[in-house]
Specification:
The chain is an all-alpha fold. It has a domain at 18-82. It has 4 helices and no strands. The longest helix is centred in the middle third of the chain and has 38 residues, at 16-53. The N and C termini lie far apart (109 Å).
């Protein structure tokens, strides 16, 4: 009897059937998840394109407009800071 217990390895005994089944299910689940991602992503992309086509002003033009507004506001703020209070405001005091 002691001879039999000495021959057992320290590693667990694994059956290949459940491992193969688990790997197959994992692979099938991965494929289903990728298919869902592709369907959802394509729908989101087409809806975004349709939304952009329906806009009155293209996003690139809107970005250019906002950038010009920001530059003008920064220049006006800088000029006001460098020149101090205007003469009209000083006479009101």
């Amino acid at each position: 009897m002691s001879n039999n217990s000495e021959q057992r390895s320290a590693m667990p005994q694994l059956r290949s059937g459940p491992l193969i089944t688990g790997a197959a299910l994992f692979g099938a689940g991965t494929l289903l998840a990728l298919a869902g991602l592709a369907v959802g992503g394509s729908h989101l992309l087409s809806a975004t394109r349709r939304w952009i086509r329906e806009m009155e002003v293209a996003p690139s033009e809107l970005a250019k407009l906002k950038w010009a507004q920001a530059k003008a506001a920064a220049a006006a703020g800088s000029a006001a800071w460098q020149n101090g209070p205007s003469a009209h405001q000083a006479s009101d005091s």
